[in-house]
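Chain A, query sequence.
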Amino acid sequence: MTSTEQDTGPTTGDRPRVVVVGGGFAGYHAVKALARSVGDTADVVLVSPTNYFLYLPLLPEVAAGVLDPRRISVSLAATLPRTVRHAHGEVDDIDLAGRRVRWMDPEGRHHTVGYDRLVLAVGSVHKLMPIPGLSTYAHGFRGIPEALYLRDHLIRQIDLAVGTDDEEERRARCTFVVVGAGYTGTEVAAQGVLFTRELARARGLGDDAVRWLLVTRGEVLSGLDRHLGRTAETVLRERGVEVRTGETVAEATADGVRLQHGEQVPTRTIVWCVGVRPDPLVEGVGLELAQGRLVVDQDLSVPGHPEVFACGDAAAVPDVERPGEYTAMTAQHAERQGRLAGRNVAASLRGRRLRRYRHRDLGFVVDLGGTDAAANPVRLRLSRLPAKAVARGYHLLSMPGNRVRTAMDWLLDAVLGRQSTQLGLVRSASVPLDTSSPEVPHHPQMPFPPERGQGG
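Chain A, predicted structure.
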C-alpha cells in the first residue's frame, strides 16, 4: 500500500469543476441531474467507494436469498452520462479554504481534486448504543457485504443446528433476534423468518424449530402512517415472530442477549437495525452542525459557503411541513434532495435563481416477503397482495437499472425454492459493526456488519 499524493488540479481550462462526495441516493441523483443540466460545459467528478449505486430498499431480499446482489448494485458507468468522471475511493479530508478534496483509492494512494462547487452527500453509518458486547456480537445491515454475510450466517446456523445433539444449542442456533423495528429491521425480520423456515423444513427440523424476535423501544414502523405499522405487526405475528415493543437489549454475549427487562435469550444471531447517524466525515469539515448533520438553507446551500451544497442523510434540511424540524433521513428525501442539489448547482454556475426544497409525502411501501406488503400511496391504505403489487411496481420504477433482471428473480422465487449454499465470500472482519474502529474483536461463531454510508 502506498501513500502517493496525486493532484488533478483545481479546474479544467474554462470549464468549472463540480465534485460530488457520495454515491448513494442523494449523491447519485445529484450527479445525474447535474450532468443532464450542464452537459459537457462543466467537469463533474463523483467520489464514492463503490462503482455502483446501491438500491438499499431491496437489501433484505438479498439477505433472504430472493435477489442476486448484482440486481440492486446498479453500475455507475452504465447509468450515468459519460461526461461524469468516477473517482473510486473514500474522501478523508476537505479543505474549504483551498477548495480541495482529498480521497484515497482502493490501493491506498491519496489524490486531491480542486472544485468550483462541492456537493456533500456522504450519507450515514450505523447508530450505535453503549451496550456491552454490542460491537463484538451484533450484526449490522447497511450494504452488500453485510447482506451476503447475513445470508450465509442464517444458512450456517440452521445447518449447525441440524448437526448437533445438544437441544439447548439447537434452540439457540435457531433463534434470531432483530433489534430495531424501522424499515430495515421490520423487513429483515419479515423476510428472514420465511427464509429460515424454508431452510428448516428442507433439513427436517420443522417450522416450529425457528424462533424470531423483533425488539424495539417504540412501535413497529414508528413515525410512519399507523396503517403501515399495524399491517406489518399483524403479518409478523401471524408468522410467529415475537414482536417486543417497549423493549431493548441490555447486553450482548457470545451465548445470546439480555433484554432490558431481564429476560435472557439464547441466540447466535443479533441483527442491529437501530437507525443511522450521519457519516463521521461531516464532523471534521468545520461547518455548523444540527443533530450531527450539516446545516443548510432551504436551497441546500451551506450558509457562508455558497459554493458548497449538502443533501441526504448528511444534511439538516429544514422541513417546511414541520416548522423548526428537519427532514427525515430517508431514501425518498435523499433522492429528491439530490436532484434539487444537482439542479441548483447548475443554476449557480449560470448565475440563476436557486430553488427551495419542498417535499410532499406521496406515501410509503413496506415489502414483508411472500405475498404480503403494506402501502399508502397518495393516502390510499393498502395491505397484503394489492400492496405487494404496488410495492414491487414502485421499486421497479425507482430503480435506475436492472429492472428486467430483478423482475426475473422475483418470478423465479415464486416458482422455485431458494438456493441454500453458503458462499463464504465475506468474512466477519470485512463487515465490522463499528465502522469508526478498524479493528473490532469478533467471536468466531458470531461475527459481522458495514460499508460506510451510501450517500443517502
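The chain is about 30% helix and 25% strand. Residues 202 and 420 are 10 Å apart (CA to CA).
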